[in-house]
Amino acid sequence: MKHIKIVLATALLSGCEAKVDDLQVFIAETKQTTTVNIEPYPEFNSKPTFIYSADTLRSPFQRPRNTGAGVEISVAAQPNCAQPDFNRSKQPLEKFGIDALSVTGVFQSNGKKWALIQSNTGSLFKATIGDYLGLFFGKIDSIQNGTVSFTEMLPDGAGCWQKKQATLTMLSKAGENNV
User: Fold this and answer.
1) By residue range, what is the domain housing residue 158?
2) 128: β partners
3) Counted domains in the chain
4) How far, in Å, CA of 87 to CA of 131, rounded?
5) pLDDT digit of tens for each residue in the chain (179 aa)?
6) Is residue 160 part of a domain?
7) Phi (first) and psi of residue 55, to 5 degrees
8) Residue 152 belongs to a domain
9) Looking at the domain assignment, is residue 115 inside a domain?
10) Is there a domain that residue 127 lies in?
């Protein structure tokens, strides 16, 4: 049985001859009648190279060096124009915007009212009338019933500063103050 299968396989495979004459004729005719038109690549004009000349200046990705001069605020003071006291030393609550502060309590000691003010970092500060808070020279005017009222000095862009009344309430959280 095994020999019969081998003989049949050989007979079948002998009939499979490669007859590709007609295919070769077709390819030859196609090559003769077809012309290939390839467009040339466009010419690229070279641009002048950019020369970076700011390599001697400070990188914008590095912190500025402390030159000791500090930041000076130039104000073109006009007559009868309200100005904050720039020479006054800053108080701890002036590091925070008023949206980052909340009143957590009010108490009175020796006839003086105090407010406990918490920052969004979790730090707790005490402040009384006349103390400063916020980024815009806010001066505390009154402390009553869990409410701290203060006056801010906002720049108007023309060299003057405008006064604005604002409050912090004990019911509000940091970021929810009634401004």
Assistant:
1) 92-169
2) 114
3) 1
4) 15
5) 788 888 888 777 776 667 778 888 899 988 888 888 888 888 888 888 888 888 888 888 877 776 554 444 444 556 678 888 889 999 999 999 999 999 999 999 898 999 999 999 999 999 999 999 999 999 999 999 889 999 999 998 888 899 999 999 886 555 555 55
6) yes
7) -70, -15
8) yes
9) yes
10) yes
